[in-house]
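Convert to structure. Protein one:
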Amino acid sequence: MNQFQNHKGFKRTFKENKMTLGLMFPLESYTGSFPEMNLEEQMRLAKMAEDYGFASLFVRDAPLYDPNFGDVGGLYDPFMFLSYVAAHTKDIALGTGSIVTTLRHPIHTAKSAATLESLSGGRFLFGAASGDRPIEFPAFKTDIENKGELFRESIEVMKQIWSEDFPKIHTERMNLTEGDIVPKPEMSGVPVFGTGYSGQTMEWLAEHTDGWLFYPQDLQGQKKLINQWRGRTETFKPFAQPLAIELSERPGEVAKPLPIGFRSGRHFLIDYLNAYQEAGVNHVMIALKQNSRPAEEVIQELGEYVVPKFPAIIEPKYSFLNFK
């Protein structure tokens, strides 16, 4: 049985053999490296997504802006930004895709994650990664060759911090002998999702994480990978991926490849998502950057025509009126 089956964010987003849809911040289309990310507009669209039945909202983590990388990743610190989003929404899951844990001290990261979990009412989905921007590692005086080991340490340490009172932890970065880290998550943990391999084996990820965020790839490749993942997990541990799309105003427009993702009408998009749902993908986070249409218009079309086929997992609210 999955530890987080009753976690509010996990339960809304993941169900075995089902797919749900989320959105990636920024909720806007833009060119170049920098989005506008007007906070009032972002919160208005976040609430709109929640009302339409999207399961999640995800934000990226990029500690440094690297002009050679082609995109800033996100203007704001992800923990602080998602705390702001939590204050403006009620039920939608809030995720990171993904926190570069190798460049953050595990104590600070554990406390930030537990704080967001508490402030959001149990809606946080913690995507964690080992990092992929080479300029960041020397800036933090961290050897990029050690990122796999640092990733393992961060996950193991945070899980111990969340689940134990006054833990004793000794690692290369830590010598915790006194004191405790609070708050403790209500479920003695936060759902953690590895990103890609993060320098680990699939076996390690299956044992130490609560789900897997992987990159988009062709249908057969993704299906094969998911089958391998399922063979290594004893309980249901979901598989999720991002997807960059440009949604055409013409519903029947056929797909055209883009540098990242594709352009198509909603009919092809629905067929695409159905195929990946059958392959075992449990959640898709849609990125809107490449759209030429306003984000509000795209979210509305997705919400009216696509999300109802892949709705968030929302339990019905019963009353005595249901039992006539």
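Protein two, convert as well:
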Amino acid sequence: MPEQTSSTPAPADAPGASRGLRLGSVLGAPVLLAWSWFIAAGVIAVLISPWVARVRPDLGWMSWAVGVLFSVVLFGSVFLHELAHGVTGRLFGYRVAAIELNVWGGFTRFEPRTEPDSPRAAWVSFTISVIGPVVNLVLGGLGWLAMDAAVRGSVPWLLLFGFTFANLVLGAINLLPGIPLDGGWALQAVFWRVTGSPYAGTIAAAWFGRIIAVGFVVGSLLLPLAQGQRPDLITVGWTAVIATMVWFSASDAAKHATQARRVETYEMSRVIQPAVAASWDAPLATALEYADPGTGRRPLLVVLDRQGLPCGLVDRTAAGRATGADHRVHEFIRPLGPWIGAPADITAPHLLESLTHRPKAAFCLIMEGETLVGFIDLQEFFDELLAH
């Protein structure tokens, strides 16, 4: 499945990077085989080998070799699925960060988008998402045609049968409209196009993913019963494992989208405090008496140094205890620390984006043109985002 908003990957040996074998590079990105793939390959071989032995009892222990070979063929199909995501993304101008094969199949990670969200971006996301399952369905069709050219029951025929069945199932399941499946990300793109918000689309598609997860388990129980048979415990168990993965992946996507949605709709007025600039040698009494003409509130006093740059805040508590009429604002200054400037119409997403360039900033000064009008304590801003 594609991951279109991931960050640029670290090298394979960097902390947090995927652990496994680097098979090479494609589209300028590493192809990684996670160690968990070997678990999946072993499980697939165990599940397939008994079927091969029933069809071809003469193969003996070679049925296990066919099972292992089938797992390799299957993950080759998964690689082509992910490669289709990558090639399509490249055609639309995205850079592929990594392709990984793992116990769940695989994923293609793209570097972050540099273009703003737009209707075009939504349809690009839709196209990238659906192309992988479409490739699997095409491979399944080609495998079906190739089976006619092989001797029925031969090892090539068995591999083609498994290849065809696996690709058709992989394509069909991945087109189901629920995150984390590719069809879910396609549905997310449709909601994104309709609502204008990728985050609202993710939340909606994640709920469909949860419904599909429940449907997997219910189906594994009810379908055999509807046919007058008892549910197979192994089938139910594996279905439950897959459903659990789908459920938690959908929930995780919804959680992150909810947080991002909160940022998208956050009202910056909640944390912007009125502020005015005071020159270094401005009379303290005059500065303390200033009140905003519109609201009557006494704003924060941001002190400018002798070069005209913000350098601190007036400590009103200490200044209120001062006696005498000759005090200047710089005598009651609290150092400001690292800060960034932003326009009065700054939004929460744009502020967070600005902070990626100034990660050590502790405060934000709000400007209307060249006039200081507001002040944000960034710690308060972060606390607000997490609390609501």
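The mean pLDDT is 82. The chain has two domains: 2-265, 268-387.
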